[in-house]
Description:
Layout (H helix, E strand, L loop, with lengths): L1 E13 L7 E2 L31 E3 L4 E3 L5 E3 L7 H4 L10 E3 L6 E6 L11 E6 L8 E3 L5 E3 L4 E10 L4 E8 L6 E9 L5 E8 L4 E9 L4 E12 L12 H8 L5 E4 L3 H4 L22 E3 L3 E3 L5 H10 L3 E6 L15 H19 L5 H8 L10 E4 L5 H18 L4 E4 L12 E8 L1 H6 L13 E9 L8 H16 L4 E4 L5 E3 L10 E3 L4 E3 L1 H11 L4 E8 L2 E2 L6 E6 L5 E7 L2 E2 L5 E4 L2 E4 L2 E4 L4 E5 L7 E8 L7 E9 L16 E9 L2 E8 L2 E5 L3 E2 L8 E8 L2 E6 L2 E7 L3 E2 L1 E8 L4 E8 L5 E7 L3 E10 L19 E5 L5 E6 L3 E9 L1
Parallel strand pairs: 1-50, 2-17, 17-20, 20-21, 21-22, 22-23, 23-24, 24-25, 26-27
Antiparallel strand pairs: 1-29, 3-4, 4-5, 6-9, 7-8, 8-16, 9-15, 10-15, 11-14, 11-16, 12-13, 12-15, 18-19, 27-28, 29-48, 30-47, 31-37, 31-39, 32-33, 32-36, 32-38, 34-37, 35-36, 38-44, 39-40, 40-41, 41-42, 41-43, 44-45, 45-46, 48-49, 49-54, 50-53, 51-52, 51-54
The protein binds alpha-L-arabinofuranose.
The site of alpha-L-arabinofuranose has 11 residues, from loops.
Amino acid sequence: xxxxxxxxxxxxxxxxxxxxxxxxxxxxxxxxxxxxxxxxxxxxxxxxxxxxxxxxxxxxxxxxxxxxxxxxxxxxxxxxxxxxxxxxxxxxxxxxxxxxxxxxxxxxxxxxxxxxxxxxxxxxxxxxxxxxxxxxxxxxxxxxxxxxxxxxxxxxxxxxxxxxxxxxxxxxxxxxxxxxxxxxxxxxxxxxxxxxxxxxxxxxxxxxxxxxxxxxxxxxxxxxxxxxxxxxxxxxxxxxxxxxxxxxxxxxxxxxxxxxxxxxxxxxxxxxxxxxxxxxxxxxxxxxxxxxxxxxxxxxxxxxxxxxxxxxxxxxxxxxxxxxxxxxxxxxxxxxxxxxxxxxxxxxxxxxxxxxxxxxxxxxxxxxxxxxxxxxxxxxxxxxxxxxxxxxxxxxxxxxxxxxxxxxxxxxxxxxxxxxxxxxxxxxxxxxxxxxxxxxxxxxxxxxxxxxxxxxxxxxxxxxxxxxxxxxxxxxxxxxxxxxxxxxxxxxxxxxxxxxxxxxxxxxxxxxxxxxxxxxxxxxxxxxxxxxxxxxxxxxxxxxxxxxxxxxxxxxxxxxxxxxxxxxxxxxxxxxxxxxxxxxxxxxxxxxxxxxxxxxxxxxxxxxxxxxxxxxxxxxxxxxxxxxxxxxxxxxxxxxxxxxxxxxxxxxxxxxxxxxxxxxxxxxxxxxxxxxxxxxxxxxxxxxxxxxxxxxxxxxxxxxxxxxxxxxxxxxxxxxxxxxxxxxxxxxxxxxxxxxxxxxxxxxxxxxxxxxxxxxxxxxxxxxxxxxxxxxxxxxxxxxxxxxxxxxxxxxxxxxxxxxxxxxxxxxxxx
Length: 815
Ligand code: AHR
């Protein structure tokens, strides 16, 4: 039994209007071919162009940036896993049918449509009346729907005499024609050709074809094929079903366009506003660090239009003079940093200046005479350190002086370094347990400090990601945000989208292929949060019991330097003679002795599901300053972003290590190699010339470490509350909104006390499922989605049965 006491009369503070938002970043190929529904893949033919300044290695499998960062490339196809799924072609997305060389295609880098295009496609039709064609496979197939219309255009010129060319939508094998149109292409300069193709059948794996029965050569500068039926039927608009899912979240702001893509991998791939506006065929394309090139059709104007269409406050993230600090950063010199500052000013002017100004008139020419709204600017993304502070201050001072009404956001707690700070963006990617333990993180934040924006968060480390259990962990954390929305005024989940054929990060809130889309359980959790905001946060006290997540996993040995020997390695007195996985470096196992033969030798052994066990080893240290570790409960995590790494890559591991170094001993908890906490250090005596016995007892969520028989460190996994709750009052409906999350595996009776008379009947929604690992899929899109219910006989003191692993929202009418 748990209890919730709600004081509706104690209105603590107003709810924050912008607490729930959306964060869009072009990751997992969700711009072109996704939210921006271009149907032709590599419409500008530029995908195989190596980003400027970078060097190709391993025959095009990777490129290396000037600062030495290695990025998967596969000659423009991106990640290995994407490349392996497609037939090889030198011009990604584009092929020629037939084997008799009736048609040849090549890139021409010297004769392009305009100065921003890097190449054009030369198509030589070498035989008359050929049935063969040049074709494009779209983003894992082109989706055409019976009766639907598609806007096509291309810029082309004939190289000899006039050339008759047919464009068509066809079945995968090219035999069945769904729609076609014929153009007469003239010699001379590039000309634009437009048509509307209306499909006469439905196919999710259609292809786009260009053919000619006539001998001759044409050059194509740019192509595009997009549905007429975009959201609000806009030209160059956005995919309808996806925008509808966004609108369904009832969110109030949009953070865009990233994420790491704002920073880029190199100076040339750092995001510049000016490259993303104007006619799409004039926008330069650039390589996004999530392994593909964007044509920037989805640009600054389109983001602002989206905000206007579904009523979101825009939050624009700007590059402040450095490339991604997670990927061998390049810090720009003052001159280049100034260029980026000017780019930010230009963007703000474009969005907000009157029509009769330079930038306002360009916006008007692009179809929007009235200024857009632009409420928030974030200076940098996930930047930190001295270089960031320097640029942050320069950008903040220059921009704030010009735009005093815009709210500026910093990436770190710059106020601690004495810098002017209005709002700080904090990011969290972790497991359900972490989020549950952080339910009260903001209770103790300084009320006089800057506002907090939780700009990226997601449960990423569960054994089954994107599950109900992940959504519940996030819900507990968000209940904590709601309770503190006097200072935590904004938040958004990350990342937002994934094209299911191009995963470069997992999990993501909304998943789509070329014709379907669905939300993971977190999407529905956020929808419930967003639709039940209320106007005032009221007193809400919870009495409940605590739970701790079951811990299990393999045992491990680690030595920082070669030479350390582990012998008599046992688990529950059973000798361990074989290694399951070498995580980094190498151990040699001989005659039952594990000898580290490289730096960072780290191996795992034992059972994957082992829960309670005792690990023991006699250890010979080679020097006191060399770190030696013994680990328990090492488990493999789901992938996040590093999908091209092998299965047991160190980044995928979480667990606990007993660490001995420099005569000190402690326990560390780590996830994805990052140390999350350490216990206090204690002094220990190590004998370097003899074997020392190290023994860890891991039992019932507690770890005990014994050195030569003496207990030196302990750690108990911290428990989190079984039930979490937050309450707000909705003035318009005169209801108290009670959110209840039961994170335990047991149904829980919750006694709810309200400090005033209430209506007899309450309404609610519940998110739960048979199994906490349940998730949604294309086959069952709403398996984990909210169900509505009604509670009768409600009184100021009533009982609610919160099912195991559930999130409930109850609206009780106040009388
Ligand atoms: O959301 C995915 C990535 O996570 C973002 O690009 C970055 O800001 C963070 O590291």
